[in-house]
Specification:
alpha+beta, two-stranded antiparallel ribbon, 2 strands, 20% helix
Length: 80
């Protein structure tokens, strides 16, 4: 049986200005997917187990800071 399960875990953090840390620079491991996204991935793995596939969408939707530093992440886990 292949049941679809939907759980929209999320973190909302909105700042009108950047803090000026390395997380705001277009460097490896910068952006929300490495900051808060890791916690969402861990939560999904604990609740649902290892996915058959994973699709990620990341973007800078606020337009604040460098466009290569994401501030929005959406992950889609597909069951095996």
């Amino acid at each position: 049986m292949n049941d679809n399960v939907f759980d929209p875990p999320r973190f909302d953090r909105y700042r009108t200005a950047l803090k000026g840390t390395w997380k705001d620079e277009p460097l490896p491991a910068a952006g929300q997917i490495y900051d808060l996204g890791a916690h969402l991935i861990d939560q999904a793995l604990v609740l649902f187990g290892r996915p058959g596939s994973l699709t990620a969408f990341k973007q800078n939707i606020r337009g604040v800071g460098h466009p290569d530093v994401d501030d929005s992440v959406r992950l889609r886990f597909q069951s095996p």
